[in-house]
Structures are given as structure tokens and as C-alpha cells.
Amino acid sequence: MPVTLADHPLIKHKLGLIRKADISTKDFRDLSSEIARLLTYEATKDLETEQITVEGWAGPVTVDTIKGKKITVVPILRAGIGMMNGVIDMIPSAKISLVGLYRNEETLEPVRYYVKLTSNMEERIALILDPMLATGGTLVATIDLLKAAGCTHIKGLFLVAAPEGLRRLEKAHPDVEVYVASVDEKLNDVGYILPGLGDAGDKIFGTK
Ligand SMILES: O=P(O)(O)OC[C@H]1O[C@H](OP(=O)(O)OP(=O)(O)O)[C@H](O)[C@@H]1O
Ligand SMILES: O=c1cc[nH]c(=O)[nH]1
Ligand SMILES: [Mg+2]
């Protein structure tokens, strides 16, 4: 399974800031979006381009344009919303497909409560957004439903992943490409990533 650790100095610096325990809701939100923007740069490096001719200020000029498949951004509710604006800044024409899943706190299994996908999923590259890849249950369930809708090209963007979640993903969906700012040490006994970020959804929405 292709895993890209996006360890650009700007990403590393921003991760250092977002890990602080006393971070404000505003700063957590801003940094999630900023790191997402940089992950988008990495995740779109292999998009194909083609040359077209446009009318420039001094006459016709040959320019590159992105060709082929269109993109749908798939934020996993709630926390994935915190990355969405950063990604949309970079790909303003992307369609958005929402997937609502939360983790049952006892079983750690994902519970589905909302799905609204855009049209023609089979023609699109899906960019899944979630700050946290912990046990991997939420991500595997999301990929299951995207594939059931016809998606064949799926990438996932995460701020922090646990090795346990990456191993689970590799078994279930080895074709999916992962872009992550940090692969952390492990999960604790209640399924939180260490050192991690804490509860990303609560920090982005200011709940709890
Ligand atoms: O890899 P997993 O073990 O499945 O855990 C990861 C999921 O947990 C968090 O969501 P949460 O259930 O807290 O929902 P929220 O975004 O609504 O807070 C996180 O944003 C992921 O979606
Ligand atoms: O560490 C974790 C694990 C799951 N969800 C979170 O928000 N944080
Ligand atoms: Mg949460």
C-alpha cells in the first residue's frame, strides 16, 4: 500500500504547534486547514496534465491544464470538515461527498449516520479527509462505501495515523494511497493515538 509521509519542514512545524495541549479552537482549526493544504499538494502531484493553447498578452501561448479524472473531496464527519477548506482552496472546482461516521466509544466500531455522494463517482478520484486514522475502522467503512458507489481511485489525507490503522487498511484496501503528516507511535487502551492530537472533532468544533 503506498504511504507518503509528508514531512516537509512547514508540515513538521505546524504539527508541532497543533500537538500543544492548550491550543485554542481557532488555532486547531487554522492549523488543520493549513496542513491539509500542504497534504493536497503532495496528493495531487501525479495528476496528469495536457497542453492547450490560450490567447496570452503577446499572442497564443501553450499552457498545461489538468486532464482526465475529476476530483471529489470526501470529508468524514465531523472532524474531516476541519481539513476541507484547506483542500478546497487548492482544488476549488472539486465536488464534495459527505460521509457521516462516528466511532462507538466502547466497541470502537464505526456507526454510519449520513452519506451524500456526488454524481458519477466511478469517474472521479476520491480524496478522503480525516485528521485521525486510529484503528482504521472508520476509514475502511468509508472506502467500502466509496467502492460500492463505483470509485476505483481513492486517496486518503490524514494529519496523524497509528501503525495499527495502517496495518488494518493494508489488509482491507491495499490499493488506497495514503498521505499523512505523521505516523505516530501507537494507540492507547481506549483507541486514541499516542502522542496524537487528542479528540480532533472536539478540538475543531469546540465541544466537550
Ligand atoms: O480509525 P478509527 O478508530 O475508526 O478512528 C478514527 C475516527 O475517530 C474520529 O472520529 P469520531 O468518531 O471521534 O467522530 P467525530 O469526528 O464526530 O468527532 C476521527 O475523526 C476518525 O473519523
Ligand atoms: O486519537 C484519536 C483517535 C480517534 N479519534 C480522535 O479524534 N483522536
Ligand atoms: Mg471525535
TrEMBL record:
<dbReference type="GO" id="GO:0044206">
    <property type="term" value="P:UMP salvage"/>
</dbReference>
<dbReference type="GO" id="GO:0005525">
    <property type="term" value="F:GTP binding"/>
</dbReference>
<comment type="function">
    <text>Catalyzes the conversion of uracil and 5-phospho-alpha-D-ribose 1-diphosphate (PRPP) to UMP and diphosphate.</text>
</comment>
<dbReference type="GO" id="GO:0004845">
    <property type="term" value="F:uracil phosphoribosyltransferase activity"/>
</dbReference>
<keyword id="KW-0328">Glycosyltransferase</keyword>
<dbReference type="InterPro" id="IPR050054">
    <property type="entry name" value="UPRTase/APRTase"/>
</dbReference>
<feature type="binding site">
    <location>
        <position position="199"/>
    </location>
    <ligand>
        <name>5-phospho-alpha-D-ribose 1-diphosphate</name>
    </ligand>
</feature>
<feature type="domain" description="Phosphoribosyltransferase">
    <location>
        <begin position="7"/>
        <end position="207"/>
    </location>
</feature>
<keyword id="KW-0021">Allosteric enzyme</keyword>
<feature type="binding site">
    <location>
        <position position="78"/>
    </location>
    <ligand>
        <name>5-phospho-alpha-D-ribose 1-diphosphate</name>
    </ligand>
</feature>
<comment type="similarity">
    <text>Belongs to the UPRTase family.</text>
</comment>
<keyword id="KW-0547">Nucleotide-binding</keyword>
<dbReference type="InterPro" id="IPR000836">
    <property type="entry name" value="PRTase_dom"/>
</dbReference>
<keyword id="KW-0342">GTP-binding</keyword>
<dbReference type="GO" id="GO:0006223">
    <property type="term" value="P:uracil salvage"/>
</dbReference>
<comment type="pathway">
    <text>Pyrimidine metabolism; UMP biosynthesis via salvage pathway; UMP from uracil: step 1/1.</text>
</comment>
<dbReference type="GO" id="GO:0005737">
    <property type="term" value="C:cytoplasm"/>
</dbReference>
<keyword id="KW-0460">Magnesium</keyword>
<dbReference type="InterPro" id="IPR029057">
    <property type="entry name" value="PRTase-like"/>
</dbReference>
<keyword id="KW-0808">Transferase</keyword>
<dbReference type="GO" id="GO:0000287">
    <property type="term" value="F:magnesium ion binding"/>
</dbReference>
<protein>
    <recommendedName>
        <fullName>Uracil phosphoribosyltransferase</fullName>
        <ecNumber>2.4.2.9</ecNumber>
    </recommendedName>
</protein>
<dbReference type="InterPro" id="IPR005765">
    <property type="entry name" value="UPRT"/>
</dbReference>
<feature type="binding site">
    <location>
        <position position="193"/>
    </location>
    <ligand>
        <name>uracil</name>
    </ligand>
</feature>
<dbReference type="InterPro" id="IPR034332">
    <property type="entry name" value="Upp_B"/>
</dbReference>
<feature type="binding site">
    <location>
        <begin position="130"/>
        <end position="138"/>
    </location>
    <ligand>
        <name>5-phospho-alpha-D-ribose 1-diphosphate</name>
    </ligand>
</feature>
<dbReference type="Pfam" id="PF14681">
    <property type="entry name" value="UPRTase"/>
</dbReference>
<feature type="binding site">
    <location>
        <begin position="198"/>
        <end position="200"/>
    </location>
    <ligand>
        <name>uracil</name>
    </ligand>
</feature>
<feature type="binding site">
    <location>
        <position position="103"/>
    </location>
    <ligand>
        <name>5-phospho-alpha-D-ribose 1-diphosphate</name>
    </ligand>
</feature>
